[in-house]
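User: Fold this, then the next.

Assistant: Folding the first:
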Amino acid sequence: MEGNIDYYYWKTAYDLIVKKNYRVATMSPSHNEIWLESPGRSPKRVVRLVRNDFDWMNRLKTDLAQIPEKVERVRRLIRAGKIEADNIYFSRYEPVDHQQEVLVAYNQPDRRTPLYHTLVTMESNPADVGIRKPLSSIDYPSSYEGMDLEIDRLKYAALLCAKEQNEQDRAVFNNAKPLLAYIFIFLQVVMFFILEQAGGSTNPYVLIEYGAKYNPLIIEGEWWRLITPIFLHIGILHLLMNSLALYFLGPIVERIYGRFRFLLIYLTAGFTGSVMSFLFTESISAGASGAIFGLFGALLYFGIRKPGLFFRTMGANVLVIILINLVFGFSIPGIDNAGHIGGLLGGFLTAGAAALPKSRSNAGIQLIFAIAVIIVSGAALFLGYL
């Protein structure tokens, strides 16, 4: 009869992981405790499955008292906001001194993180003990012949699917070994020393001579000044800040999109950032900030296409950094915020036009994104020349 409870445990894990696309957030080495998270973002649901025989109620109470803290740790681990949690025990028998009201007393349906507890034993089919949807929709057969083989099959399939999910996530970040990001950093440093030798990177005449964005000359036809500012920086602090940002951000985007897409996103975002600066800012400007904001835009597009993976890995941090930079741009004089916003928009649209590698892409949607890049850039240039 012990096989029955193991079957309940692995049948539940199998259906959630394989059929309902739940992901393993964390799992004990012996596989007798599995934390699962639901797909999607709202509402995010966390399910804890525990295979343990509780002989006495005190042992169960001790575990119940620790659950809120464990749920909070898992919530932070999966980088989720508000969640609901189900804690399900699978035990051969009820504790000797079991009292059903104890489980009910530990339920927290009205808290910020609603929490529900269930005890499944060999005498109770999981579908009959109050397990909430979607767990209640799992089909638990009444026949248990050949159950040992079926338990092994369910366990193997569930663990294999969880492993494949993790491998698919890792593959998303391995589309290329970072190279171009470091090359761009090298070019920035080289150009900085060239400017310093020519008279100083803060000297406006030197900046103009070497290709900084300067509206009067762009109007006269020197359109290449919409690209060359990406490689120039005004002062050592400007260079260090942008190089540091590119060092941390560039390899991530290059791993996700691959080298060709990264190159396209970076240069196009730098161009759209310069175009917006040309439209809204009269002063001389230079720097890779627009292109770097374009990398943020590419990550935002990645977040739309793969929201679960995005928020599990970097989502909140990316959004906070973008917000902080935009607030600083609007509150501190001298920062070319038009270039930042132009780069952010350009990077997002270019990422949509290029699409994610090895993903099902809609050619029509990609074309719309590409046309949007052309329209935004063309309109800004037209207005800038007026």
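Now the next one, as you asked:
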Amino acid sequence: SPTLRYGFVDLDDSVYVTQNPYVKGLSGEGLAWAWSPLSTRASANWHPLTWMSLQLDASLFGGSAAGFHATNLLLHILNALLVFACLRGLTGSVGRSVLVAALFAVHPLHVESVAWVSERKDVLSSFFGLAAIWMYLQHVRRREPGWMFLTAVMLILSLLSKPMLVTLPFVLLLLDFWPLQREEQLAPRERWRFLAREKLPLFVIIVLFSGVTLWAQNAGRAVQTLEQFPLPLRVGNAIVSYVTYLWHMVNPTHLAVYYPHPGKQLSWLLVAGSAVVLAVLTGLAWQQRRPRPYLLMGWLWFLGTLVPVIGLVQVGGQALADRYLYLPLVGPCVALIWLTGDLARERPIRRGLIIAAAVLIAGLAVQARRQVATWENSLALFSRAVQVSPQSEFCWNSLGLSFERVRDYASAEGCYREALKVAPRSLDALCNLAALVQRQGNVDEARNLLEQALEINPKSSQANELRGGVFVAEGDADRAIEFYQRAIQLNPFDASPRENLSSVLRQLGKPEEALEQLKEWLKLDPQNPRVYNSLATVMIDLEQPSEGENLYQRALRMDPKYANARSNLGILKYRMGDYDAAVDQFRLAYKLDPSNTGIMENLSSALIESGLKAAAEDRSLDAKSLLDEAIAINPRNFFAHHRMGRIAVDKGFRDEARRHFEAALSPEMDRQKVKPGDLAVCHHDFGLMLAVQDKV
């Protein structure tokens, strides 16, 4: 699969894997977090088994995205096999079961659930859900109570992975109707009463998990209010979404990661037309319930399994999503394949339909391959999203953030401005654009954008935090502190404003107050290496360098690729006079972040000091090697050329000395940190060398 060559994407993968300190491998602390209510802050869901599976991948594959993609792909393959096994066991038909499983395996609508690492919850939950159906089939066949217990266990595991299959007891009742036809085996008065009573433990389980899910989504602030999405709007969008899903099933060529909710722009004429379509299809399925019961079963499977995500409880700003069809797609596929099989009883027709089915599956596989390509990286993903949904400010914002990740700031700015054309009152677009233009030095525009954002929503934690950053840029630390504190009050669980507030307090010479903020941050996010990096810096301010070094080392144990912590540890070693150790840290930091000019300058300075130390210890080769490296990193470094000139003089290499002295005194050198006295000394050394050379 091409996904094995793909990386992570910006959408949610940072929350689920790349920037989640608890998903670095299986550990006691990580497992405790996965099962605790704290994990709901990350994703607005309580799904501990999903976290555990991602932690296991991190243990097995480290940070390699290929391993995570491989697990998703493996689960999808297992799910396709389970679809076959369940249908084969339920109906006895091998050929039709193979066709349904093949449609399930290659349909483009399933690409999102497999190619997106964050959707591990989807394929994992479905694996246990399908296993529950298989266990239920054994219960019906063997009449042994242990199988019903295992069905309940599989349901619990499914809901611990993703609370999607809360409709499973109803799905089992549909299977009792067809193909198991259990109601015909019972007395008329006892039929459905017995079948429902048999599943009472399952109903209790789904009620409990439904309550937990609503709590988690509310705690994560994911559930939209009735003021934002009134009930009539939700019902109308749900009706349209059902028909849209059907259209995507038969024409999966216009798929994307995000479909924006139409909101008040929803066409009620479209709602009415969609309602007619649903009513007609429901009527036809009901009419055929005796001669063709699979039609009603498949149709109700589709309608029912989508209920938790159809938007009656609106979570997020999307109208629908491809991933929501992962298991609901099975119902229509069963109905279609069994209907086609019944209509093709004659051998010539059957042969033609087999060829048509093969062509259909091959065509879907080709389209799925095209859809997979949109998940190659974040730029491909959101470029496709804005093609499909050009009126979505979310898609433009996400594309802008992806451009920022690759340092294409001009394109990022263009995307944010497009988002504001689509939605002039978009808080995300205003804040993203403000942060970008401020980093580019346009403080005035950043201020204006954030004033607009705060006028729209004075309680936006992000806007208040960014406004504090503008005050920092303007040199007004007191107002910056005021806005950072306001951001903390609005969202006490967000560590970012505490980080920024502690930085301002440090700059004001208040390390004790900065330390208090960092301690609060540590409580919120004890597995974040950035907090230990910041704590180390404050401890050094408090004249506790050994404690600071320990904290830097702890941050680096948590994330060995944390360039800022490596650089800070190098700075500490440099200040302590341990230039060789400083060089080692700066080299590592520079490899991790070669575009960081600050690290480059620090490495150059450490190399010079280490070179001087080597020269003083009569290690001229080491000294020359270190200074050569400093010049290679920054050819415009005055100090490196000056000291190389002096070393060359001492060794009698006068031509080389002349070259370095002339380079040091060239107007092309970087003179920002060069004092007049430094220049005077260089002129003196060069002049002295020339005078001696003339005498010789």
